[in-house]
Fold this sequence. Notes:
By secondary structure, the chain is mainly alpha-helical. The chain folds into 2 domains: 5-204 and 311-340, HUPs (Rossmann fold); 227-308, Tyrosyl-Transfer RNA Synthetase (Orthogonal Bundle). It contains 13 helices and 6 strands. The protein has a 3-stranded parallel sheet with strand order 1-6-5, sandwiched between helices. Strands 2-3-4 form a 3-stranded parallel sheet. α2 packs across α12 (281-308) and α10 packs across α11 (270-277). It starts with a strand and ends in a 6-residue tail after the last helix. Residues 22-26, 56, 58, 61, 149, 152-153, 161, 163, 167 line the site of tryptophan.
Amino acid sequence: MTTALLTPAEPAAGAPVARRVLTGDRPTGPLHLGHYFGTLQNRVRLQHQGAELFVVVADYQVITDRDIADRLAEHSEGLVIDYLATGLDPDRATIFAHSAVPALNQLLLPFLSLVSVAELSRNPTVKDEIAHSRQAAVSGLMFTYPVHQAADILFCKADQVPVGQDQLPHLEVARTVARRFNERYGARGPVFPEPRALLSATPLLLGTDGTKMSKSRGNAIPLAADEDTTARLIRGARTDAERRITYDPATRPGVAGLLQLAALCQGRAPEQVAEELGDGGAAALKRTVTESVNEHLRPIRARRAELAADRGHIRQVLRAGAERANAVADATLGEVRTAMGSVGSD
Ligand code: TRP
C-alpha cells in the first residue's frame, strides 16, 4: 500500500501540483466536525494546490448496511451544501452522484471478475461494517461495494484518494483491480493508474464521549448545527472532576478531545490551550471550546444557510457534475471495451 500524508503546508510558490483526486462520502446524514477537520479542509487545500477534484456523493453505497436509503435526496443535497460552504468550487471540482453515471456502474462487471470471493470476504472494513450492520441479513452488495468503490476511483483515473484509515483496505482493492486489469487486458498499454491513498495529517477527532467522532455514535457536532445546539452538545461532553486541565489523550480522552477541538479551531497546539486554562476546570474548558468552534464555523454556517436557501442551484451543481463525470466515464468504458475486445456498439 502506498500512502502519503497530507501536510498542512501550502504549495511552493507558482508551482501548482497537477493531479487528479477523487474522494467522496455516503449521503447518510449531516457532516460533522470530524469530516471537516479530517477531510473537507484537505480537499479545499488540494483544490488550491491545483489538483483536479472529483467528489462522489456515494448514493448507492448507502444501501450496503441498511435496507433503505432514507431521505436520500435531502442528504445528498446536504453533502453538496457542506462541500460548497467549506470552499469547494463547483466550477473547478466535479461533484456528482454515482447513481447518475451509468458507465461508472458498468465498470463493476469486469472489475468483479478480477477479485476472488476469498479476497472480498477478508476485507477488514467490510467485516467491521457487517458487525455493526442494521440489516437482518448481509447482502451481496456489502461484499462487493469495495469493487464498486474501485469503479468510483478508476473511472476518472484518479491517482490520489484522500481517505481515512478505515478506507485503506478499499484503496487496496482499487489498486489490485487496476493492476490486474492492466495485466490481463493491457497489451497495448495500461488503462488504469494505481491510485495512492492520501491520509489526513489530522489525528482522529474525538467526539463528545471521548471516542471517535461518528454520526452513528451520537457524539458528533454537526457542521450545520446552530450556536446554541453546539453549546448544548459541548456542555454535555464527558469530562472528569479534575480542575487542572492537561492534554493527556490516553488517560483523559474526554478532556483531550475537547482540547483538540479548540486547538484545531484556533490553529494552536492542544497543550497550549490546556496551559492557558490551567486550573479552570471542565466548565471553563467547555466555554472555550464552544466559543472557538462557533467562531471558526460562523462564516461557513452563514454560507451554508445561503446555499441551503437555493436548492435549484444545488441541483444544478449536481447536474453539471454528472454531465462532466458521464463524459469521463463514457470515455473510460470505451477504452475498457476496446482493451477487452468487446464488440457490438462500434
Ligand atoms: N466509502 C466511503 C465512506 O464510507 C465513501 C466513498 C465512496 C469513497 N466512494 C469513494 C471514498 C471513493 C473515497 C473514494 O466514507
